[in-house]
Amino acid sequence: MVVMALAVRAGTMDLGAFVTELRDEVLFLQRTEHPGVFIAELEDGERWVSAFSTPEAMAEFTGGVEWVSLRGDDLMDLVPVGTNVVLDPSTPHSVAIESIDLPKPLLEADDQSAPRSTAAEDVREGDERGRLDGC
Asked: Is 74 part of any domain?
């Protein structure tokens, strides 16, 4: 995944192809108290989800928080419409994926008529959960 991220940054891999490949990768995110993903809202109103290629990369950035692992396709299902994703922030291979480049959901954000799953059914059974303190 890091090699692909570097290729995106170098311009030798298309961002769309990277997003497609990311769907099959295992990613690590900050664990939330309730089903869903941790979203950071910036002063300008932009919303971002940080995803990490390894628990160690996450610990280096966050200083150590509880984490959960899930597949990229599950992450993309959980990210609310209009929210961006950044892979391995503050690293040489960091890749920002704006919401417009993420796969589109079947329902719009304001469509409340259809049932929604919760956190990819509470993050797939068997996925790792853990805590890793700073590297």
From this structure: yes
Structural domain boundaries, residue 96 = 2-102+116-122
CA 126 to mean position of chain CA atoms: 19
* Beta-ladder partners of 65: 132
Give the model confidence (pLDDT) of 50-95 as tens digits.
999 999 999 999 998 899 999 999 999 889 889 999 999 999 999 9
Interatomic CA distance for residues 65 and 54, integer angstroms: 13
131: in domain: no
Number of domain units in the chain? 1
Is-above-0.90 flag for pTM? no
The model's pLDDT over 46-62, given as tens digits with 9 standing for 90+, comes to 999 999 999 999 999 99
